[in-house]
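User: Good morning. I'm curious how SAJ would be positioned relative to this chain. Could you predict the structure with it bound?
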Amino acid sequence: MYKTAFNKVSVVGLGYIGLPTAAVIASRGVEVVGVDVSQHAVDTINQGKIHIVEPDLDMLVQSAVTTGKLRATIEPEPADVFLIAVPTPFSEGFKPDVSYIETAVKKIAPVLQKGNLVILESTSPVGTTEKISEWMSEIRADLSFPHQNSEQADIHVAHCPERVLPGYVIQELVTNDRVIGGLTPQCAEKAKDLYQLFVKANCIVTDARTAEMAKLTENSFRDVNIAFANELSIVCDKLNINVWELINLANRHPRVNILKPGPGVGGHCIAVDPWFIVDSCPDEARLIRTAREVNDSKPEFVINKIRKVAEAFKQPKIALLGLAFKADIDDLRESPAVDIAQKVIQEKLGDVLIVEPHIKELPDKLQAGHVKLVSLVDSFAAANVIVTLTDHSAFKQVKPSILHEKVIIDARGIWE
Ligand code: SAJ
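Assistant: Good morning! Here's the predicted structure, ligand included:
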């Protein structure tokens, strides 16, 4: 058991970040109340089960619920800390949509009490933490907030962006350093006390705007580097050079470390967050915008390859290997592989065999007469064209001798 000034923590948003965070805090002996708009999520968690897929999360939630340290509700209730972990997608024209944050903040405002700490974990455009302080003050004129009253405020407000990698969330929640940005230095120190309950790595304090930008920078750095690899793959295709061999060779230089080209960048973070910087500084963030455009153009490049290859067959049978947005997970959200499959199906480029070992049924948008979800073995038995869209470990086991009998579009470089 840990000694702490926080007796009760409320986690608002029980998704991929909120639920693991709630369970980890509860595992440290603190009472945690999770709040979510989904009755299904709330009911599932209260039964000690989980509604999302993440290794080891089921055991952690089950134990936290069984010991009475974690429960979920629809309506917020008073607590010492409110930790907001709701989605921040983009809307029309790649504009950040902070409406989930605004709704969450306006829901907790009525139950706030003097001395409370409010932490925003959602990835957010610069300036959002100041805004949540303002939104709360509009509803609670009886309390003072850090944007008005600096260090003397009744409520403390900080931003501590989540940085965990899907598939490794439970481990990274504890082992990753945390950047904690307060609206005032005292806000940051208070938030640091909370994270030190469960983070074994460094908790580094800064101001809220820098913390917001740090998170956007991390994902933009990755996006720009993947875009470099993707652009190289397009250049090499034109110059008739094997990009995988090229990258291997270039990476032998002690200061070169090129990432992997692929069919595009998926998921709900790296393909989204750079737009938040572009939206704030459209004239300045030129490289960041171009990287997004390069990565977003990659699915069409792969579809073009499939079109060309399919034309050569009387009866093209196209096996698409992988739908998930990255290796060894079941997450199909914002996956370029799904977009590519959808286009191949819509354009009726041939019979389509989809191999995705992590799902049992095809998503609705990929259901069509000439499409089947099959095993890897069956796909190789039937298809004349094989396209790799996700680098699942299972696909790496294919014997090279079988590959010679097929036309291969290895967009992930699995067999290179
Ligand atoms: N990808 C490539 N080539 C590569 C690496 C990745 O094409 O060399 C593709 C993947 O296939 C995938 C996409 O990029 O489609 C993103 O995958 P990822 O593994 O790079 O990242 P995410 O989106 O799963 O998680 C990222 C992480 N951020 C960084 O690594 C900087 C994670 O730490 C963040 O917490 C997460 O975003 C988030 O929630 O923001």
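Residues 123, 162-166, 218-219, 222, 226, 259-260, 262, 265-267, 269-270, 325-326 surround SAJ (CB under 6 Å). DSSP finds 15 helices and 15 strands in the chain.
Let me know if you'd like a different ligand tried.
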